Amino acid sequence: MPNISRSQLRSVVTDIVERTPIVDIHTHLYSPAFGDLLLWGADELLTYHYLVAEMMRRSPIGYDEFRAFSTREKANHIWEHLYRLSSPISEAARGVLTALQTVGIDVSRADPEEIRQQFKHWTVEEYVDLVFRKANIEFVVMTNDPFDSRERALWEQNIPVDSRFRAALRIDPLLTDLSRACSILSELGYAVSTRLDDVTCAQIRRFLRVWIDRMDPLYMAVSLPPTFCFPTDDPVRRMLDSCILPVALDRELPLALMIGVKRQVNPHLQLAGDSVGKAGTQAIENLCVAYPDNRFLVTMLSREDQHQLCVTARKFRNLMPFGCWWFLNVPSLIREITMIRLELLGFSFIPQHSDARILDQLLYKWAHSRKIAAEALVEKYTDLQRTGWSITEEAVTRDVRDLFRDNFLRFAGRL
Ligand code: FIX
Ligand code: ZN
C-alpha cells in the first residue's frame, strides 16, 4: 500500500474515520421490540435531561410546574428558553441541531411544531435504519436492568432483539443499594439476606447467570460514586469477591465500572440532578492486582481523573479505559482526553461511547466525536511523518478500526 503524502493526510484520515463503522459500547437505547422504552423524535430530543438542566438556569419556572407539563409542553418550554431567547451554543443544544440537520430537517426557521411534523414521515423501523446508516454504526450496546420490572417483563417474553442492539447487564443495586437489591431478589424467589452469607452469595450468582443466559450481554456494568473504595470491610467487597467477579470470570465477561457520579445532588431535577466528584484510581489498581484474570472496562466522570486513569491503564492490561462520559462529552474535553490517551496508551483504549438516551442523539454525538478524533489523529500522524515514518492507508484503517470497534470486541472476547 502506498504511503499517504503529507498534503493528503488530512483528507485520507478524515475519510477513514468517517467510513469506519462504530461499535457504540454504552447507550441507554433499546431495540424497537422494547416498544416505548426506545425514545426517538423531536419531543424526546428536546427534553433530554442535559437540556432540562440548562433550561432551568435560564427559565424562572418552578420545578413542580415543569414536572407537571406534558412532554410536548416541556419541549416547547425548552425551545423557548434555549433556542429562541438565546443561541443554542452548548454541546447538548447544538447537538439537537446537528441531529435534525443530518436527517434533512431545515433548522433555520423551524420551531418545535414544524419539527414534529417532519418526524411524521417515518415509522420507528425506518428511522432506526436511517439513523444507523447516517451515523455509520454497526451496533450499539444497550443498558439492560434486570432490577427494573418493566424491562424484566419484556425479557421474560423472549422478545426478538434486533442484532444492531446488543445487551449489557446492569447491576447497580447490587453494589449501591443492597437492601433494594435483596428485596427485589426476594420477590423474584431468591433466598437472600443483606448479611451476604454463603447461601445469599450462591443465590446472587444464580440470579446473574440466569440473566446472562437470557440477555447474552457483552459485559456487566455498574456506575459508582466517587467515594467507591476497594477493598473495604463493607458488603461491596463481598459482593464483588464472592458474587460478581466469579461469575464475570466463568462467563468470560468484562465488568464495566463507571466511576464518579454523585447521584441526586439536586433531587428536584430528577434525572438531570446528578453531579460529578473526583475519585482517584486506587480502587481500580487494587481490583486489577487482586483479580488479574478479570477484565475491567473503566470510564471516570471527572476531568481530573483522566490522566491518572491512563497511567493506571499502562500498568494493567486487564484494564481498558473507555469513553468521555456525560459532562466530559464536550468538544474541548474530548480533544484533551483523546490526546492524553493517544500519547500515553497509543491505540490501546476505546475513545468514545455515546451514552445516547434518544436514538437521534447517535447522529450528533458520533458526528461531533468523529470530527475531533480525526483532528487528533491528523496531528499525531503528522508528527510521525516528520520523523520520516511512512503512514499508509492500511495502517490508518487498522488503527481507526481498533479505536472504534476492534479494541472493544477483543477485550470482550468477541473477536
Ligand atoms: O449511569 C449511567 O449510565 C449514566 O450515563 C446515566 O445515568 C446518565 O443519566 C446519563 O445519561 C449520562 O449521559
Ligand atoms: Zn449511561
Strand content: 5-15%
Average predicted confidence as pLDDT: 97
Figure out the total of helices: 18
Please trace the helix and strand order, writing H or E for each element: HEHHHHHHHEHEEHHHEHEEEHEHEHHH
How large is the radius of gyration? 22 Å
Ligands (ions, cofactors included): D-fructuronic acid, zinc ion
What is the fold-level CATH name, i.e. the topology? TIM Barrel
Shape category? globular
Q: Can you say what the CATH homologous superfamily is?
A: Metal-dependent hydrolases
Structure write-up:
The model has no long low-confidence stretch (mean pLDDT 97). By secondary structure, the protein is an alpha/beta fold. The strands form three sheets. A five-stranded parallel sheet has the order 4-5-6-9-10. The protein has helices at 9-19, 42-46, 49-56, 63-68, 71-84, 91-102, 112-119, 124-135, 149-156, 172-176, 178-187, 198-215, 235-250, 282-290, 306-315, 331-345, 361-386, 393-411, and strands at 22-24, 137-141, 165-166, 169-170, 220-224, 255-259, 261-262, 275-276, 296-300, 319-321.
Set out the fold topology:
Elements: H1 9-19, E1 22-24, H2 42-46, H3 49-56, H4 63-68, H5 71-84, H6 91-102, H7 112-119, H8 124-135, E2 137-141, H9 149-156, E3 165-166, E4 169-170, H10 172-176, H11 178-187, H12 198-215, E5 220-224, H13 235-250, E6 255-259, E7 261-262, E8 275-276, H14 282-290, E9 296-300, H15 306-315, E10 319-321, H16 331-345, H17 361-386, H18 393-411
Helix pairs in contact: 1-17, 1-18, 3-5, 6-17, 8-17, 12-13, 15-16, 16-17
